[in-house]
Amino acid sequence: MQKQQQLYKGKAKTVYATDDADYVIMHFRDDASAFNGQRIEQLERKGRVNNRFNAFIMQKLAEAGVETHFERELAHDEVLVKRLDMIPVECVIRNYAAGGIVKRLGLEEGQTLTPPTFELFYKDDGLGDPLVNESLAISLGWATQAQLDEMKALTYRVNAVLSKLFDDAGLMLVDFKLEFGEFHGRMVLGDEFSPDGCRIWDKQTKKKLDKDRFRQSLGDVVEGYEEVAKRLGIALD
Ligand code: 5GP
Asked: Where is the SAICAR synthetase/ADE2 N-terminal domain (predicted)?
């Protein structure tokens, strides 16, 4: 697969075209950003750790019957994925209150949300990814009701699979964000699943092992990601 021109540069990943119109290459960079890109730092090894982490999770999800864009790892920080027609909303599941919902509603951090809460955000950096609802997403043509139904069902399915995986490793999957797109008319999980886009706490101590270590300047950010990887049995080189 031949790497071609850069298509898109996000806050932590760069996407390149390939000689096959159905596939693109994602490069995981070491950049970490917070507060909508206002704070950007380089964190050594983050790109390769997230690439391995994402590959492991995507393979687990595929085994559980969730179709993902993951094809194969090409290098320590690069992966070959299907080229999706992305739906511009982020699907978030919250098992416990943290982050945005704590600020918005004044909840206690760690409060259990039963059943887990599903939220939609409009993917727009300029607007700071605002919270939206299904009605608006349909009115503005971002997705159809059928697409939203499928994305929501898949997000809950991912939650069931990953909550168990993390729980078995002594970890709490507090919340996470997914992005979907269409591939030849099928709804497919895209983007990435890594500690950059979810919250993971140690079950006993409630120690934060995800990107909140960066957002809240707790230190040892990549070390937190590596700790989770180790507990899940992910081989890091
Ligand atoms: P919150 O709304 O609490 O800020 O985020 C909820 C969950 O979605 C967290 O796990 C957070 O990491 C993830 N998330 C929300 N927006 C983004 C985003 O723009 N990029 C990434 N990587 N993760 C996000």
From this structure: 6-231
pLDDT digits (tens, 9 = 90+) for 196-237: 999 999 999 999 999 999 999 999 999 999 999 999 999 997
Atom of ligand 1 nearest to the CA of 177: 8
> Ligand 1, closest atom to CA 212?
12
pTM over 0.85: yes
Cα–Cα distances (Å) from 27 to 41, 53, 87, 98, in that order, read 17, 14, 21, 29
> What CA–CA distances, in Å, run from 131 to 89, 127, 163?
10, 10, 24
CA of 127 to the centre of ligand 1 (A): 14
Span from the CA of 198 to the centroid of ligand 1 (angstroms)? 6
Query: In the listed set 82, 102, 131, which residue is the last one of a domain according to the structure?
Result: 82
Single out the residue in 61, 82, 103 at which a domain terminates.
Answer: 82
Ligand 1 pocket by C-beta < 6 Å: which residues?
Answer: 90, 92, 99-100, 129, 175-177, 196-199, 211
124 and 204 in a single domain? The answer is yes
* Residue 12 tokens, joined: 């932590």
